[in-house]
Q: What sequence folds into this?
């Protein structure tokens, strides 16, 4: 099971008419991006999935030129630069022996954030590369970070893919189990999955499916129930389960049923741990107790969905925050993979959903502005555990391993 949230993303960046779209088509072996002699043909990021041997499927992201001009051009450049923090590897395209301020800025952005990059000299059949320039770039950035290509030489396709593979961080495509270090073969795991109006029709939500798959992969035993059947299930078991994983929205109910000797956590907390920034979440969640009248809380949802009266981000969390603190808290909700608002400093807390539909890199890029501004961040599951008074219990299992 490898959804789009677990595929590494490789972005192509560079000026207009430098061959980015042609390079995407060359790498994928398909006509993915429109190619034209007219500058600015690519206006929005174009994405295409392709398999790379030894890695699996990756998402290629073709972006607009970073030298686009005019009002609309500047908006396209902003969108292109916003993609950079979200990719796992940046391919910086240049040609005609032109490596100037635009390219240097892209490399600087990658180096300052620790993002791997590859400089690709394109159209080498049209513009013979200057050996002095190549030697300079090789000495400055490393020979492994430079590749010369002509899309008319198919032999270079395999070589370029191998170079990309060598630079792509292993953490972007080697998926760790959500239950890594927690569940052992033979363990019995109880999953509590309420079916209410916010549940998708005819299926389980993605984090529940991911946990179920990981239980099976670990050769443990999974038992799935709704909250109303939990007590009778536990009574029927000959031995207590090793772990109970619940939907965060019924934390309080499940906490009252599951014996204190049994470990308890939530799907959202497990997902947050596997996505990174977990230490930041643990540190930031208790700041809920410091919220005051008029403070603003930003709730981030990575996906878009139909809103119901039982919606967690728009209904339940805001209500619990106000009840817990006794304060008049202002809650804003931002759906989809949009970046944080420019006025992020106006918020006292940011609470991110589990992020099941985005990559680790996308999630980190989304929250980094808040972290850099010193704003505490939390996660839906951890926040709900804290608001229900079971934060310590819900995170205790992670201290054991």
A:
């Amino acid at each position: 099971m490898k959804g789009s949230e677990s595929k590494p993303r490789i972005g192509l960046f560079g000026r207009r008419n430098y061959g980015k779209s042609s390079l995407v088509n060359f790498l994928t072996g398909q006509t993915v991006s429109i190619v034209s002699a007219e500058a600015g043909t690519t206006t929005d990021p174009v994405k295409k999935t392709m398999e790379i041997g030894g890695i699996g499927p990756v998402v290629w992201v073709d972006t607009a030129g970073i030298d686009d001009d005019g009002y609309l051009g500047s908006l396209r450049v902003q969108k292109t630069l916003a993609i950079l923090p979200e990719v796992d590897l940046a391919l910086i395209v240049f040609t005609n022996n032109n490596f100037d301020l635009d390219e240097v800025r892209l490399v600087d952005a990658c180096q300052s954030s620790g993002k791997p990059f590859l400089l690709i000299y394109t159209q080498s059949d049209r513009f013979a590369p200057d050996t002095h320039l190549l030697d300079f770039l090789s000495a400055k950035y490393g020979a492994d970070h430079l590749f010369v290509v002509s899309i008319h030489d198919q032999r270079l396709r395999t070589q370029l893919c191998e170079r990309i593979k060598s630079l792509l961080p292993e953490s972007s495509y080697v998926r760790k189990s959500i239950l890594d270090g927690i569940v052992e073969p033979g363990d019995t795991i109880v999953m509590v999955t309420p079916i209410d109006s916010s549940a998708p029709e005819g299926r389980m939500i993605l984090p529940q499916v991911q946990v179920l798959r990981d239980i099976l992969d670990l050769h443990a035993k999974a038992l799935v129930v709704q909250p109303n059947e939990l007590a009778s299930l536990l009574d029927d078991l000959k031995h207590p389960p090793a772990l109970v994983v619940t939907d965060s929205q019924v934390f309080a109910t499940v906490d009252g049923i599951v014996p204190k000797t049994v470990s308890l956590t939530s799907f959202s907390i497990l997902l947050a741990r596997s996505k990174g920034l977990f230490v930041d979440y643990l540190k930031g969640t208790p700041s809920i107790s410091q919220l005051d009248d008029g403070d603003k809380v930003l709730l981030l949802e990575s996906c878009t969905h139909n809103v119901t009266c039982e919606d967690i981000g728009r209904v339940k969390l805001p209500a619990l925050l106000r009840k817990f603190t006794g304060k008049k808290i202002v809650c804003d909700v931002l759906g989809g993979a949009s970046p944080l608002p420019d006025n992020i400093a106006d918020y006292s807390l940011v609470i991110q959903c589990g992020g099941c539909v985005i990559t680790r890199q996308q999630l980190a890029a989304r929250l980094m502005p808040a972290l850099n501004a010193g704003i505490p961040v939390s996660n839906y599951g951890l926040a709900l555990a804290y608001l229900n008074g079971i934060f310590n219990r819900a995170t205790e299992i992670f201290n054991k391993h």
